[in-house]
Amino acid sequence: MPLSQDDSSENATRTQLVQVLLRDVLRRHGIPFNWVESQMLVVASRSRGSGMYVRLIMKHWDDRLITHAFALQNTLLADIARFEPRAFDWLHGVSWQLDVDGSCPHTFLPHKTYWQEPAIPATPGAAAAPAPVVTPPTPAAPAAPAAPDGRIRVGAGGTAGSGTPVHDPRPGDRPPGGRWKTAHGLRKHQANAALNR
Fold first, then answer.
1. Is residue 94 classed as helix, strand or coil in its secondary structure?
2. How far apart are CA 79 and CA 28, in angstroms?
3. Is the pTM of this model over 0.90?
4. Which residues of the chain fall short of a pLDDT of 50?
5. Residue 22 main-chain phi, psi, to 5 deg
6. Which alpha helices (H) appear in the chain, and where do they start and end?
7. Based on the number of CB atoms within 10 Å of its own CB, is 82 exposed (0-12), middle (13-18) or buried (19 or more)?
8. Cα separation of 91 and 76, whole Å?
């Protein structure tokens, strides 16, 4: 059962140590100093004897702070143990008090079905879903150049349908002006020219 605070030198030193370490935890993690305060309570336990409890008082409501309250408590206890190796001989535990009147929006308990819904993880370090693997498309073969009317031009070098201008084997038989001819018409023209040789 909590008793009045002991003004002894030993308890005063412990109280000051916890206050300094709490302030250092808040500073390191960017939490405003006026959001959390500490109070030391002197207690007497039948099993452990006399000792002290750390009471952390939340003075300002913030969802981020309440979400990470357990981490804040563990960080503070680790710092206390580092500076006072025998701290757990006299430190009996940690308690919390929410003194957040006016800053907490949650003033009523929700319906019972609220607690039956699956909780949404709010851990900043939760693994993100892997990005989908995107396979680049296979480049298509270049299309053969065509005239606006879809014909292949009879020009210098190449074969019909290859995307390269086609050259008549007998220069004298090339249509005047390099006019446009279809691949079928060109093959017919080449066959007739071979027969007349």
1. strand
2. 12
3. no
4. 1-7, 126-134, 152, 154-169, 171, 180
5. -65, -45
6. 9-28, 63-67, 69-83, 87-90, 183-195
7. exposed
8. 12
pLDDT tens digits for 48-91? 888 899 999 999 999 999 999 999 999 999 999 999 989 988 99
Give the model's pLDDT for residue 186: 63
Question: What gap in Å lies between CA 166 and CA 186, rounded to an integer?
Answer: 9
Chain-centroid distance, C-alpha 142:
41
Question: Parallel, antiparallel, or unpaired for β 36-45 and 49-58?
Answer: antiparallel
Would you mind telling me the total number of residues written for the chain in this entry?
197
Phi, psi of 91 (to 5 degrees): -90, 110
Instruction: Name the strands in the sheet holding 49-58, side by side, starting at the edge strand that comes first in the sequence.
Output: 36-45, 49-58, 91-98
